[in-house]
Amino acid sequence: MLRALVDAAERFRREGELPPTGYKPKVPKWIVNLEKGRPYLEGPYTQKEVRAFLAPDRQRSGTPSKKNLKPYLLSDDARYALGKAEPGKEEEARLLHEGFLTLLEEAHRETGLLELAQLLAFLKSSDVEQIRERVGPRDLVQFRVEGKNLTEDGAVQAFWSEYLARELMAKNRAYCSICGKEGPVLRILPREVVVLGQKCQVSSFNRDAFTSFGKTQTENAPTCFTCGSDAVDALDYLIRAERHRRALVSNPEASGLENQLAVFWLDKKVELSYEDQTYDLETLLGSVLDNAGGQTGPPAELSQLDSLLAVPWTARTSALNIDQSCFYLAVLSANKGRMVVREWFEASVGRLRENLRAFLDGQRIVGPLGEEPQVFPIPALLDALKAGDPNLTQDLLRAAYLGLRPREGLLGVALRRFRNPRVLQNHRALHPLAALLKLALTYEREEVKSMERLDSGRNEPAYLCGRLLAVLEEAQQRASGWSLNSTLTDRFYAATAAAPAANLALLLARAKVSHLPKIRREGRGYREIEGFLEEILSYLDAQQGFPSILNLKAQAEFALGYYHQRAEFRRKS
Amino acid sequence: MERTGMVTVKVWGEYACFTRPEFKVERVSYPVMTPSAARGVLEAIFWKPEFHYEIRAIGVLNMGSEMVILRNEIDRRQGSNPFFVEDARQQRCSLVLKNVAYLIRAEMSLQPWATDPVYKYRDQFNRRVERGQCYHRPYLGTREFAAFFAPADGESPDPALNLDLGIMLFDIAFVASKKRVDLEFMRHGPQGARRVQGYTQAFFFPARLEQGWLKVPPEKYQELYRMEEGENA
């Protein structure tokens, strides 16, 4: 994964998306302008009022001390940049500011930039007092000298990269675990990444038990500066870019391990061209991971992908062979300052197309009220399961992108949710669950099309039993004039789905005595109900009657039979 | 006298984790067994100071699937001082392999001081494999993932399996050194075993599955021996 990230860094740098080494976008609260040596303070700004700028950044943790002094070059909080003390911490602020000035002096010595000398002169003068009074100790301060943002200067950027390399190197040499070359390796990685609000190191050795062979910190995972900084910079960019990230499970109240963030990218940017329209392939492929965010239909990009999968793909640039482009995907979580990789794979776009087609076809199913068949992005499917098991996420991702059949575990979890009476009455939760059941049952099988909606020719006993239960429920509803809050399925669905023979005969007998005569008397579609009953029971007779028990797959058949039949009734009504 | 002899053994197991060094805390497994893990399996079955194994190729009979497991572990090393496990809990994730099977093809290479012919050791190895004997339970990457082993039964890897695995851990050199002392370890020589001080160095190689086989470059072993012997001298 880190090797792919190093390659991705090259691509993003070529496209001008990646900040320079050891840089990160930051939003200043205060901007100190120096014009002809005179300071002018702008601010305070909020995040919305001012544009983020690229500023030097590095990993910083622990209590600051002479040995643990890690100022950022040119832009830092006011404790470092101006020596503004927090109450009772005057000595600490003095130390931090000294560190900031020493770094600036070093930068000035190595780059020879006059603006840095000007800034140093100001910071050492008494003019700084009036500025210091107005800012808070933790406010981020940016400096501009003669209208120039010094962090953008090429010489400053080169200095910061070299300075970081010097600072972060271990004293011993080793072979880099990413490029395999021998040379100096990092003692610690340049900076952290933030996974769904939690700061974490890509490779962390923050406890004694994690180290081996007497090595300390990142020496346990030997990485050269170029590979380490490129991998972290690329990952940080991917995590921050809307285009490359999707939150699969995001619950602010949950522990870091429960939350899951997907980042994905292609080895090169590809634009598809179809009917005079241009589509961004990365966005399209990522749409399977879009969070519908409470909307009723599938996200717009997923619908586009669904339609585009049916036509041949041509690149906007004829020189590009789309099928050979490589797609990368990682699912990440944070665990106590350490990054966790829950899933990692790469696949060619040619292979992805086939797999995505099979995945979307597999789950496409009619709505619970008989609406047109629809597909769902993975977060919507996971949300319907309410299981929080990372292996389910992995199952769905692998089915979607790698074409691996979902495991039976998925069927079990989906069935447990499906038979919950509250879920049975909740259309929004039921639809993605039915899609999951269909996916698990029909993935890459002939029935994938016929099972999109009611298949009246299907003579699987479990499917027929499910349909029969839906017909009996409809009879009960019609007899009551659709006034019931809870129906026979609330009470009997779970038991009937596991052992149809034990329950269906009883329910059928009750319907014949109580519900059907009333429907006939009051003219509420008796013929339709009777027609369905005759059709289903004749099929069941041919299959030797009601099955006594159903296994997991048969229970999924039962669920789909029930769902399809109910959707059919509601479509008509 | 012949000083090298080939051995082949089939290993398989329910789970495996060949941890990548860059993800060794929240573990991520390489997709295929590493040469050092293969050496560990062979040494668990049969080992004498008179020879060492050089892995020549690893055949993938079953790539397996990947799964995530979360386990309670501890955050400090166990030593002579007892501590309460509850105070040192750490939950760690591992992206591991499930249901894997490999063929390990290795060369048994005699040490310079060995006097017996290599076929003595090779035949001993083969007899132990047939009987299922081992000095300690072989494992697939980590000790909790036990490995089963048997003589190669003619099963061969899928020839359609071609995959670029990137840079993979080859093995770890134990270098005796007085200038850099990270740890103590045992070193075997003509006079028997002795404790030496030094450090370790991980070696990597560009790994690629070709027709189901991961070929291990023999020159890497020479590089590793040079490093181990260089500072020792």
Automatic annotation (TrEMBL), chain A:
Highest rank taxon of the organism: Bacteria
Pfam families assigned: Cas_Csd1 (PF09709)
InterPro entries documented for this protein: CRISPR-assoc_prot_Csd1-typ (IPR010144)
NCBIfam families per record: cas_Csd1
Name of the protein in its database record: CRISPR-associated protein Csd1
Natural source organism: Desulfofundulus luciae
Automatic annotation (TrEMBL), chain B:
Listed EC numbers: 3.1.-.-
Any single Pfam family the record assigns to this protein: Cas_Cas5d
Source taxon at top rank: Bacteria
Presence of keyword Lipid metabolism: no
Coiled-coil intervals: none
UniProt KW keywords: Antiviral defense, Endonuclease, Hydrolase, Nuclease, RNA-binding
Signal peptide: none
InterPro entries associated with the record: CRISPR-assoc_prot_Cas5, CRISPR-assoc_prot_Cas5_N, CRISPR-assoc_prot_Cas5d
Enzyme class: hydrolase
Annotated family: Belongs to the CRISPR-associated protein Cas5 family. Subtype I-C/Dvulg subfamily.
Function, in words: CRISPR (clustered regularly interspaced short palindromic repeat) is an adaptive immune system that provides protection against mobile genetic elements (viruses, transposable elements and conjugative plasmids). CRISPR clusters contain spacers, sequences complementary to antecedent mobile elements, and target invading nucleic acids. CRISPR clusters are transcribed and processed into CRISPR RNA (crRNA).
Name of the protein described by the UniProt record: pre-crRNA processing endonuclease
